[in-house]
Specification:
Blueprint lengths: L4 E5 L15 H8 L7 H13 L3 H21 L4 E5 L9 H8 L4 E6 L2 H5 L1 H4 L7 E6 L5 H8 L10 E5 L9 H11 L5 E7 L5 H13 L9 H5 L6 E2 L5 E2 L16 H4 L1 E7 L2
Parallel strand pairs: 1-4, 2-3, 2-5, 3-4, 5-6
Antiparallel strand pairs: 6-9, 7-9, 8-9
């Protein structure tokens, strides 16, 4: 199986158009994780977020932990194809590293809308030679474009795991309809893994956080448990069902520190298509 080294935009042509003066959620997330691929506008917006939502760093780490554990579980369950939307700045271990550690033949397609992620895509594309890694420059609100690009690298007759980690809260309207487009394209045995901001554990802080992100140009919407559960309609939830991110199959990894529900402030779940 040949290694994939593709990166393209939704129309198939690489594009890089950076605006360092406008904060971006992916670079703010990188800052919360302790990364260095962020700029003054991102750090200023992140500082405002931390001022009203002091759990931002712990919530970001909890989301990364959920990504690692959910991918490991799905790969150990036999899934060998993954689509990761809202990839963000590469922060090892990335999704393909987790999946290809289980099986080097795993195939992964990444998608993100931040042009700076395209610059770092080469780091994402250094996967196991037996597998495939690819990157598409596209937004989660372009499901058909992402699916079309993914079909160049994945076999849609076989199960595919779709990872929507900490991205749907940046889709204030239409998030369920977008998710349904992705779900309808995936075959039986496929998986959906989602983490999402909720205000149910720290309502005042979360309300102020969504205001900060929206004012910075990234409209944000926290969702309650019932709204979150709708993303999985028609699919079978994997045990333990819908829980705060650190409570989804915690392990003994030193990276997964004990957190309160408020410090995580995100729901997480994985479901399988019957």
């Amino acid at each position: 199986m040949a290694v994939g080294t593709a990166h393209e935009d939704a129309d198939g042509d690489p594009e890089v158009n950076l605006d360092f003066h406008v904060p971006h959620s992916a670079r703010m997330y990188d800052y919360f994780l302790g990364g260095t691929t962020n700029f003054p506008a991102d750090r200023e917006a992140a500082g405002r977020a931390l001022a009203v939502f002091p759990y931002a760093r712990t919530a970001a780490r909890a989301n990364r932990g959920f990504m690692r554990r959910s991918v490991r579980h799905l790969a150990e369950s036999g899934i060998r194809q993954f689509i990761d939307i809202g990839t963000g700045i590469p922060t090892s271990p990335n999704l393909h590293e987790v999946a290809q550690q289980i099986d080097p033949r795993a195939r992964v397609v990444y998608a993100d809308n931040d042009p700076i992620v395209l610059i770092h895509a080469e780091a994402l594309l250094k996967g196991a030679p037996e597998g495939v890694t690819a990157y598409v420059q596209a937004d989660v609100t372009q499901p058909e474009a992402i699916l079309e690009a993914a079909r160049n690298h994945l076999d849609f007759s076989q199960p595919i795991a779709l990872s929507l980690n900490a991205v749907l809260h940046f889709v204030p309207e239409g998030a369920h309809k977008i998710t349904d487009v992705f779900k309808s394209a995936l075959p039986s045995g496929s998986a959906l893994a989602v983490s999402h901001l909720t205000a149910e554990f720290a309502p005042e802080e979360t309300s102020r956080l969504t205001q900060v992100y929206t004012a910075a140009g990234t409209p944000t919407r926290a969702r309650d448990r019932n709204e979150f559960a709708r993303f999985f309609d028609g699919w079978n939830l994997v045990d333990p069902g819908i829980v705060p991110t650190p409570r989804w199959r915690p392990d003994d990894s030193s990276a997964d520190e004990p957190l309160t529900d408020a410090e995580a402030s995100c729901y997480a779940a994985v479901a399988i298509r019957p």
